[in-house]
Automatic annotation (TrEMBL), chain A:
<dbReference type="GO" id="GO:0000931">
    <property type="term" value="C:gamma-tubulin ring complex"/>
</dbReference>
<dbReference type="GO" id="GO:0033566">
    <property type="term" value="P:gamma-tubulin complex localization"/>
</dbReference>
<dbReference type="GO" id="GO:0005813">
    <property type="term" value="C:centrosome"/>
</dbReference>
<dbReference type="InterPro" id="IPR022214">
    <property type="entry name" value="MZT1"/>
</dbReference>
<dbReference type="GO" id="GO:0051415">
    <property type="term" value="P:microtubule nucleation by interphase microtubule organizing center"/>
</dbReference>
<keyword id="KW-0963">Cytoplasm</keyword>
<dbReference type="GO" id="GO:0031021">
    <property type="term" value="C:interphase microtubule organizing center"/>
</dbReference>
<keyword id="KW-0206">Cytoskeleton</keyword>
<comment type="similarity">
    <text>Belongs to the MOZART1 family.</text>
</comment>
<protein>
    <recommendedName>
        <fullName>Mitotic spindle organizing protein 1</fullName>
    </recommendedName>
</protein>
<dbReference type="GO" id="GO:0090307">
    <property type="term" value="P:mitotic spindle assembly"/>
</dbReference>
<dbReference type="Pfam" id="PF12554">
    <property type="entry name" value="MOZART1"/>
</dbReference>
<dbReference type="GO" id="GO:0005819">
    <property type="term" value="C:spindle"/>
</dbReference>
């Protein structure tokens, strides 16, 4: 039972490593933490295209915040 | 396992990393207020896409690219990379795609959906800066 769970954990780790490398090569801008959250959202049934729109929107918002921070410095 | 609302909240927090809130609090922008606004924008983007998808399907049907399996779309990107002269990147991408297990043996339930997300986000980050 425990060895089956370990095998599954190893499979998830290896798959995540490959997905992270593909993500890096595609220049998606996702780090491991964001990618892990996205994987779980996809597993909850969120549409990938809609999720990509959410990520782009969040990036725009945080970039504008960081830009205004630089302007006030 | 977390709910969709919790996961979206964590995604919002991730996008706020690196922002200095001490100085912002003095200017009247609180972290909590901005986090709320960010979550609203996230839900707006999620829901608008949901309704847009429905109208697209009813009027013209899904496009050929949308129907292409995500693994094939990554291979199409590999082809584009080769055409652009980035042979090494194309080979590395093909290699990683070959290493990606099928859903049953990956330990993940929605591996093709994740791959589709990566295709949608491809090239959306600024290119890595080169340091001299």
């Amino acid at each position: 039972m425990a060895s089956a769970a370990n095998a599954n954990l190893n499979a998830v780790r290896e798959t995540m490593d490959v997905l992270l490398e593909i993500s890096r090569l595609l220049n998606t801008g996702l780090d491991l933490e964001s990618l892990s959250i996205c994987v779980r959202l996809c597993e909850q049934g969120i549409n990938p295209e809609a999720l990509s729109a959410v990520i782009k929107e969040l990036r725009k918002a945080s970039e504008s915040l960081k830009t205004s921070e630089n302007c006030t410095n | 396992s977390s709910s969709i609302t919790e996961l979206l909240g964590t995604l919002c927090d991730c996008s706020l990393s690196g922002v200095s809130w001490k100085r912002r609090a003095l200017g009247g922008v609180s972290k909590e207020g901005f986090r709320r606004a960010l979550k609203r924008r996230a839900y707006d983007a999620l829901l608008s896409k949901l309704f847009l998808d429905g109208s697209k399907v009813s009027s013209s049907g899904p496009s050929a690219t949308a129907q292409t399996p995500p693994r094939n779309r990554v291979l199409m990107i590999c082809f584009d990379l080769r055409v652009a002269g980035c042979r090494e990147e194309a080979e590395r991408l093909e290699d990683q795609l070959g290493r990606l297990p099928e859903e049953a043996s990956s330990g993940l339930k929605e591996i093709d959906a994740v791959l589709e997300l990566l295709v949608h986000l491809a090239g959306s980050a600024p290119p890595p800066s080169t340091s001299f």
